[in-house]
Each structure stands twice: as structure tokens, then as C-alpha cells.
Amino acid sequence: MEKTTITSKPTIRTPLATKSVSVELKQLVKKFPSMDGGEDFVAVDQLNLKIDSGELVTLLGPSGCGKTTTLRMLAGFEFPTSGSILVGDKDISNVAPNKRNIGMVFQSYALFPHLTVFENVAYGLNIKKVNKKEMIQRTNTVLEIMHLEKLKDRPPSQLSGGQQQRVALARAIVTEPNVLLFDEPLSNLDAKLREYMRDELRKIQQRLGITSLYVTHDQTEAMAISDKVVIMNQGQLQQADSPQNIYIKPKNHFVADFMGKANFIPATIKDCDANTIRIIILNEEITVINNVNFSIQKGQIVDCVVRPEFWKIDNEGKFNGIVRNATYFGNSVEYEIEINGFLITVSDYEHVKNGMKFEGDTIRLYLEEECVSLLEEGRKGV
Known about the structure:
This protein is 23% helix and 33% strand. It has nine helices and 20 strands. A hairpin with a 2-residue loop joins β4 and β5 (90-91). The protein is globular and about 75 Å long. It starts with 22 loop residues before the first strand and ends in a 6-residue tail after the last strand.
């Protein structure tokens, strides 16, 4: 395990001259020919996405959803079948990768084993034929930012995984790219180091202000580092929003189910106005915020999205249930609780105060009504 102690920010002699720009994907489509002569496989389907200047946006979704193909099209490793890619006001859809001024951090790091840390970081500047004095100055600056200055004469084989990851990031930013791309850069690290490097990477991105697109399969990682999370499925964009809205206000069943655990509980509309909706859920009446994106009427059946932590164990709570299973995780206890014949999942993060509950125990629950969101009943599609 790599240990890194940082007592203060390094003194940076020369700031990087990164120029922050916006990125826009318009009606982007990528099709791959079928191997058996059938219909083309549509990897990315009519994708529209705007990344504001200096923003870090994460593409998230299941395997095969199109997130990596989207990243590769922005990098220039794949060219779109149709649509356009704008960086600033320039359409780069058919521009060669080495002409795009885009940096990329790969999952495998892709460091040169025969070069030192300094030589790896300086490689892109040498390719661009930057004069030696500037090359040395810019490389040393980036090594300071990454806390690698004491390791600059080592080969990659003598570095830990976290150190190699920082070298790969240093090499990507030393050329002062307009856009920085990340292809699951932390997936090869162990859990504790991955969390540390995730936070460091975010701090560096914010300090430099580089517009960034990040691909990951890790939902927690996406929530922790992103200005905006983009959920994709079957090549299509499902929702592009802040991490908070993605989690608390999902636009469809796929997003709600993909982003962590969720209880989908049927409810009946009792009444509504412009701001609130009164519903009957599990035979009890509650009032939720009216932020639905579909038409509703009295008596209509809807699905409530209730995250396990929205339930609180409370002797004054209006919901009465029976514990059917309890799983201890250390920082929380996860319960399966039956209420009026319906099984729900509840996460208790105050189990020390509340005490451990066991199978067969009767329990009262309070529901944080302001966190509940409504979806059209049974609409599982995109």
C-alpha cells in the first residue's frame, strides 16, 4: 500500500497554461458493421451532450452502453458515423487524434518501461519539439503538482500503482491540453488507494480547470468527483444531471435502479397542486414534492422511488413493519422489512443509537417524504 503524506500544497514555479473550453456532442451516432452481415450495431445513438468549460463530466452505465465508444470518438480513436463533436467553436469530428490537443489517461497507464518518470512525463513535449529549457521547466512543474519530484529518476517498475497513475496523469496534462479524457483510470488500484487517488485527481482537475470527460463503471466514484453525471444505456442518454439529482430525482426506472439501491413502491395519487402531491403509499398518506415529468391525475397509480436510507427507525413513525432479515455492514445495518405484505429495504446508519433489530421484531419507520420521487408505473424503458 502506498503511503502519501501531504502537509501543504507544493510551490508551483510556473502555472500550466491550460485553456478551458466547452465540448458539445451533437446528434452523435456510431455504428459498427455486423460480423454476420446483418444490421449494423449501434453503439452510440443520437447522443446530445454539453460539457461546460472547466467541468468534469462522468459517463456511467453498464457494459456495452456506449460510454467508452463516446470517449474514443472524442479522442479521435473512432470517427462518428454521423453527428458532430465541437471543442470550443471548432468541429473536430474528422480531425486526426494528434491534432486535437486532447490529453488522455488510460486504464493501463501505458507508461514506457525503459524511460524514467521524468522522461515519461516529458515525452509529449519532446514529440511536439518544445525547446529544452521550457520542456524541463514544464515537466518539473507538473512533477511538483503530482508530488513526483523525488521519484523523477526512477523507472515505472519501481513505482507503486498510485504513483504510476500520477505519472500517467502528469504526462497527460504537461502538454496543456484543452480537454482531458479519463478511461477508468483508477480501476487497477486497491479500494483504499482508489479512494485517495479519486480525491487527489478531482483536486488537481479543479485547480487546473481542465474540461474533462471521465468514464467509469464505479457509481460511487462517479458521484464523488463529478460536476455532472451522464447515465447511458444501449447507446442512448438516460439522464445528464448533477450527482444529487441523479440520485434523488431519477428521470426513469433505469436510472433509479442503476444508481444504487432503490425501493420501487406503488402508490395512488390522492391530490396534487403545482408544488406538492399527496399520495397513499403502504396504506399511509404522505406529501411529496411535485417534480414529476409526466401528467398525473387523481386515482392514478405511480411508482415511488425510495432509497433505503430515506427510511428512519423512529418510534413515532407512521409506518409499522416486521423485520424479515438483518445484515450488519459495520457502518450500517441493512434490513428487509415487511409493511402490509410489501417487502422493503432499509439502511440504518444510526444502529448504535437505535440498537440492532432482529428477524421477527416489530419496528416503526419514518419516511423522509421530501426525498421521495415519482415515476410512471411500470415504465422500465429508456
